[in-house]
Write a structure and sequence with these properties.
The chain is of the alpha/beta class and 234 residues long. Helix content is 34%, strand content 24%. Helix 3 packs across helix 5. The two termini are 13 Å apart. Bound molecules: cytidine-5'-triphosphate (CTP) and ligand LQXTBERG. InterPro entries: IspD, IspD/TarI, IspD/TarI_cytidylyltransf_bact, Nucleotide-diphossugar_trans.
Length: 234
């Protein structure tokens, strides 16, 4: 990781699967909102020059207040998100000034600094890289009839996480092309993959969970206590 990096942290989702009145990225994990835990890891890394935070329009005010309260000086822009995650990423990217950009979910507070570094280093070699872990379960493709259609070879299956790291121009052009062609991906790499450019997969770890459903909150408390005993992997 030899270049200066910017990070887009997307947190403009509504958290419908969590089912809480408060959006999940603002739920307290011990003493601080989940989003603040996430931002602190990026803030702490010398290689990261700036952060573009993407949130809902009505949350810009409180996020701005938190950046002061928690010393998140690298948050250079807080921008309003879009309808889908991909739209939010595009808006965040437009607010970054660096030639290298990574995208991270605001609801993945347990990513390790060492994993971020490994992902960015791979992107510097290949142009694009994502963090991921090998799947542990057997995965089936299931048809609309509820019957198994196929069983892909597990050795080639990885569960994809964030951050996803890119030469900024590569991601920007890929996202613009996806938008022009009406393509919506569930992660950032998908836009790049469809241009034919290579994307490296970097093994991360299973604790980099995306807080998605209520069960994940108990797991998050456990991981936070454990991390306090270990440091954040810097
Ligand atoms: N229009 C959107 C949708 C999602 N996200 C962000 O993308 C990340 C991953 O999305 P997900 O876990 O699916 O979050 P939500 O969309 O909030 O959840 P749900 O799908 O349950 O509504 C989250 O940090 C979320 O805030 C975003 O910035 N803009
Ligand atoms: C980008 C991502 O976190 C990779 O696992 C995931 O695809 C986001 O998907 P979601 O549908 O927004 O949860």
């Amino acid at each position: 990781m030899g270049n200066e990096w910017g990070a887009v942290v997307v947190a403009a989702g509504r958290g419908t699967r969590m089912g809480t009145a408060e959006s999940k990225q603002y739920l307290l994990l011990r003493d601080k909102p989940i989003l603040v835990h996430t931002l602190e890891t990026f803030q702490s890394m010398a290689e990261i020059a700036e952060i573009a935070l993407v949130v809902g329009k009505d949350d810009i005010g409180r996020c701005s207040e938190w950046t002061s309260r928690y010393g998140l000086t690298k948050v250079r822009a807080i921008v309003e998100g879009g309808r889908e995650r991909q739209h939010s990423v595009m808006r965040g990217l437009a607010a970054l000034g660096t030639d290298w950009a990574m995208v991270h979910d605001g609801v993945r507070p347990f990513v390790r600094a060492s994993s971020i570094r490994a992902c960015c280093a791979a992107a510097e070699r290949v142009g694009a890289a994502v963090l991921a872990v090998p799947v542990k379960d057997t995965i089936k493709q299931v048809g609309p009839d509820g019957l198994i259609a196929s069983t892909p070879d597990r050795r080639s299956l990885w569960a994809i996480q964030t951050p996803q790291a890119f030469r900024r121009s590569l991601l920007q052009e890929a996202l613009e092309r996806a938008a022009a062609e009406g393509f919506l991906g569930t992660d950032d790499a998908m836009a790049v993959e469809r241009t034919g450019a290579p994307v490296a997969v970097v093994e991360g770890d299973y604790t980099n969970i995306k807080i998605t459903t209520p069960d994940d909150l108990a797991w998050a408390e456990f991981l936070l206590n454990r991390r306090d005993g270990e440091g954040n992997g810097a």
